[in-house]
Specification:
3 domains; single chain; 651 residues; Serine Threonine Protein Phosphatase 5, Tetratricopeptide repeat; mainly alpha; 70% helix
Length: 651
C-alpha cells in the first residue's frame, strides 16, 4: 500500500510538483511572520524583506531538496525527474515548524551555527527532546523528525535494504547540518562586516545558491559537458569589457569604500557577475542557434541543435534554467547588477527571436550588439556605483564602443552569405553582392581610425590596425581567430588609454574621500549632509555612506547625534566594527563609560583592531592601568592604528 502511494507521487506531473515547491516557502514565510512574531514580513527595509522571502528562503530549501535528490540518485539510481517530483510534492512538510512553534509559545528565533563544537552538538542531539538547541526550534526538530521517517519509508519502498536507508538518512542529516552551518565555515564576521554585497540576507542566500548549484550539477552533470561543447570561446568578446568595467568602477568610486575586498564576499560578488554574464551569453547563444537552425545548415556552421548538443525539446527548459540562475546570481549581488544584466538579456532576446529579430537588419543588428557590449562595461561599473552606472562613462567612451562594434562587427557575416540570403538576413554581403565585401571591409577598417581620433590615440597606431583589418576583410575566408586577436589588441590599447586619463570619466557624487570630507567646516557640512542623505534615500543601509556620515558627525563633535543614529541603525541595518567603534567613542564623550566599553569590545569582535587602542585609552582615562596595559599590548601585537583613540584625550 505504502509503495503504491509513493509510486503515485513519483509519477505525478513534474510541473505541478515544482509549483508546489515554489508556493510552499511563501506560505512558510507568512506563517512565521504572523504566528511566530519574528517580523520577517514587516521588515522596515522592504528590499531586504523581499530578498529574504523570495531568495534567502528559496535558495536554502532548494539546496536541501537537491541534496536529498542527489543522495537518492546516488544510492538507488532512480529516475531523476521522479525523484524531484516526489521531493517537491512532499515539500509541504516545511509548513509545520511555525505552527508547532506557536503551540510552544513562539518567538524562538533560531540562528546559524558558527562553531564546529555547536555543529557536532546539534547533529548529535537533534532528536533529543531534553536538550535545547540554539540553531533549531522545536518545530524545526519535529519537521526534521517527520522528514527522516518519510525518507526511511520512501527508501525502504525502493529497496528493502534497511542499512542503505539508514546510511541515506545519516548522509542527509549531515549535509543539512553542513548547509545550516556553512556561514560558520566562512566566519561570522564576513556576514556582518562591510562588503560590497550589502546585506547579510544576500550573503546567506549566496552561500545557499552555491550549494544549490553544486548539487544541481551533480544531479545533471551531462549539461556541464553540453555547455563545454558549445562555442563558449565567443564569451571572450564580452569578458574583457566586463573586466574593464570593474576597473573603471574601482577607479572612480574607490574612495567611498573603506575596506573594499577585505571581505571574502566582495570576491564572491565579482564571481557572481562574471558567472551571470556567462549565463546571459549562453542564453543569447542558444536563442541565436535555435532560430538559425536552417540558416546554419546551409552555411555549414556549428550550431548546438544541428550538432545534437541540445535537442529542440530541451530548448525552453534550458533557457528557463539559465535565466533563473542568471537572475539569482545577479540580484543577490545587487539590484543595480540585476537591472543591467536584465537589459543585456532583453537585448539578446530581441536580437534573435521572431517576429522582431533585429539580427535581420543591416547596421541595426550590430548596433544592438554594440549596446550589449556597452552594457557589459556598465555591468562591471554597477558593482561599485549603484545609482546610475552609465553616467560615469563620458560620451567619448560610449561613442567609441557604439561606433566600433556597429560598423566593425558586420565583418562576421562574411561566412554566412548563402544562408543569410535564404533566411532574408540583410547584411552588406547580401544587399550589395560582391561590392558588399569592399563596403564592409571599408567600414570595419575605418573604425580603428575613428576610435583613435575620438580617444586621442596616435593616428599611426590606428592606421596600422586599419590597414591589417582591411587586408583580412577582403579575403574570401573569414579568419575569426585573427580578427579576435586584432580587436582584442586594439581594445587593450584603448582600455589603457581610457583608464590612465581622468578626462574620460564624468564626476559622480560617490567620488570623494572620507578624509577630505572630515576636513570641511560646519558651513560646508550642511551641503555635504544633503548629498549624503540623497544617497541614503536610495540605499538606506549603505555602510560606506553611513561611515562617512558618522565620521563627519564625530569630527563635528555631534556625539549625541551619532548615538541616536547608531541606535536607529542597529535596529534596522547591520553595524560593522568601524561603526561600533565610532559609537563607542561617542558614548565615552557623552560620559556613558560602561556602554562605551561594551560597544568598543563588540567592535573588536567584528575585526576592528583599532578599537583595542580605544579600549586601552578608555581604561587609562578611568584609571584602570592594568586593563589599559592589557589592551595596549593586544593593539601593538595586532599593529592597530591609535589615531581615533587619541581623540578621547581631546576636549
Amino acid at each position: 500500500m505504502m509503495k503504491k502511494i509513493f509510486n503515485y507521487i513519483e509519477k505525478a506531473n513534474f510541473i505541478n510538483a515544482l509549483i508546489i515547491a515554489l508556493i510552499i516557502p511563501i506560505i512558510r514565510g507568512v506563517l512565521e511572520g504572523a504566528i511566530d512574531h519574528n517580523k520577517m514580513l514587516t521588515n522596515p527595509i522592504e528590499y531586504k524583506s523581499f530578498l529574504f522571502i523570495f531568495f534567502h528562503q528559496y535558495t536554502f530549501y532548494f539546496s536541501v531538496y537537491l541534496a536529498l535528490a542527489f543522495l537518492i540518485r546516488l544510492f538507488y539510481k532512480k529516475n531523476r525527474i521522479e525523484i524531484l517530483t516526489f521531493i517537491f510534492s512532499t515539500s509541504i512538510i516545511i509548513i509545520t515548524p511555525p505552527v508547532i512553534d506557536a503551540f510552544f509559545g513562539g518567538n524562538f528565533r533560531p540562528s546559524y551555527i558558527f562553531t564546529f563544537e555547536e555543529f557536532i552538538f546539534s547533529l548529535l542531539n537533534v532528536f533529543n527532546p531534553f536538550v535545547q538547541l540554539r540553531a533549531l526550534s522545536p518545530g524545526m526538530r519535529i519537521e526534521i523528525f517527520l522528514a527522516t521517517i518519510g525518507i526511511l519509508l520512501w527508501t525502504l519502498s525502493i529497496s528493502k535494504n534497511f542499512l542503505k536507508s539508514v546510511l541515506t538518512i545519516i548522509s542527509f542529516l549531515i549535509i543539512v547540518a553542513i548547509i545550516g552551518s556553512m556561514p560558520g565555515f566562512i566566519s561570522r564576521n564576513h556576514f556582518h562586516s562591510f562588503s560590497l554585497i550589502e546585506t547579510d540576507t544576500q550573503r546567506y542566500a549566496i552561500v545557499n545558491l552555491y550549494i544549490l548549484t553544486i548539487f544541481l550539477i551533480l544531479i545533471f552533470p551531462e549539461y556541464v559537458f553540453k555547455i563545454l561543447k558549445m562555442r563558449i570561446y565567443k564569451f571572450l568578446y564580452y569578458l574583457p569589457l566586463l573586466i574593464f568595467g570593474f576597473f573603471v568602477g574601482i577607479k572612480v568610486v574607490k574612495w567611498t569604500y573603506f575596506k573594499a575586498f577585505e571581505n571574502i564576499f566582495d570576491y564572491f560578488g565579482i564571481f557572481n557577475i562574471v558567472f551571470s554574464l556567462f549565463l546571459a551569453f549562453l542564453i543569447a547563444l542558444t536563442l541565436n542557434d535555435y532560430y538559425d537552425r536552417e540558416i546554419d545548415k546551409i552555411n555549414n556552421k556549428k550550431n548546438v541543435f544541428n550538432e545534437g548538443i541540445l535537442n529542440e525539446k530541451e530548448f525552453l527548459p534550458f533557457i528557463i534554467i539559465l535565466s533563473t540562475f542568471s537572475i539569482l546570481f545577479s540580484i543577490l549581488t545587487s539590484y543595480s547588477v540585476f537591472i543591467v544584466l536584465s537589459v543585456i538579456i532583453s537585448s539578446a532576446i530581441i536580437y534573435s527571436i521572431e517576429p522582431i529579430r533585429i539580427k535581420r537588419f543591416w547596421i541595426l543588428s550590430t548596433l544592438n550588439l554594440s549596446f550589449i557590449a556597452l552594457m557589459s562595461i556598465v555591468l562591471g561599473i554597477s558593482y561599485f556605483y549603484k545609482e546610475n552606472p552609465i553616467l560615469i562613462l563620458n560620451e567619448k567612451i560610449i561613442l567609441s564602443v557604439l561606433i566600433g562594434i556597429t560598423f566593425g562587427f558586420g565583418i562576421k557575416d562574411l561566412s554566412d552569405v548563402e544562408g543569410d540570403k535564404r533566411g532574408f538576413i540583410f547584411t552588406a554581403y547580401t544587399l550589395f553582392g560582391n561590392f558588399g565585401k569592399f563596403i564592409q571591409a571599408l567600414l570595419t577598417s575605418s573604425t580603428f581610425l575613428i576610435i583613435s581620433k575620438i580617444l586621442e590615440i596616435n593616428i599611426l597606431v590606428g592606421f596600422l590596425f586599419s590597414f591589417v583589418c582591411f587586408i583580412l576583410s577582403i579575403q574570401k575566408k573569414f579568419y575569426e581567430i585573427l580578427f579576435l586577436l586584432l580587436f582584442s589588441t586594439f581594445s587593450i590599447i584603448c582600455f589603457y588609454k581610457i583608464y590612465k586619463e581622468e578626462k574620460f570619466f564624468n564626476e559622480v557624487t560617490y567620488n570623494y574621500n572620507v578624509l577630505e570630507l572630515t576636513k570641511i567646516s560646519k558651513l560646508d557640512f550642511h551641503i555635504l549632509e544633503e548629498r549624503v542623505n540623497n544617497i541614503l534615500n536610495y540605499e538606506f543601509c549603505n555602510q560606506n555612506i553611513r561611515k562617512i556620515q558618522s565620521a563627519l558627525y564625530y569630527k563635528l563633535k555631534e556625539y549625541q547625534k551619532i548615538d541616536s543614529l547608531m541606535k536607529f541603525l542597529s535596529e534596522n541595518c547591520y553595524l560593522d566594527g568601524y561603526l561600533y567603534h565610532l559609537w563607542a567613542l561617542s558614548l565615552f564623550k557623552l560620559k556613558k563609560y560602561h556602554l562605551a566599553i561594551e560597544k568598543a569590545k563588540i567592535a573588536t569582535l567584528l575585526s576592528e583592531i583599532d578599537a583595542y587602542w580605544t579600549l586601552s585609552a578608555m581604561y587609562y582615562i578611568l584609571n584602570d592601568n592594568f586593563k589599559s596595559l592589557f589592551y595596549q599590548n593586544i593593539a601593538i601585537k595586532k599593529k592597530a592604528n591609535d589615531k581615533l583613540a587619541w581623540t578621547l584625550f581631546n576636549p
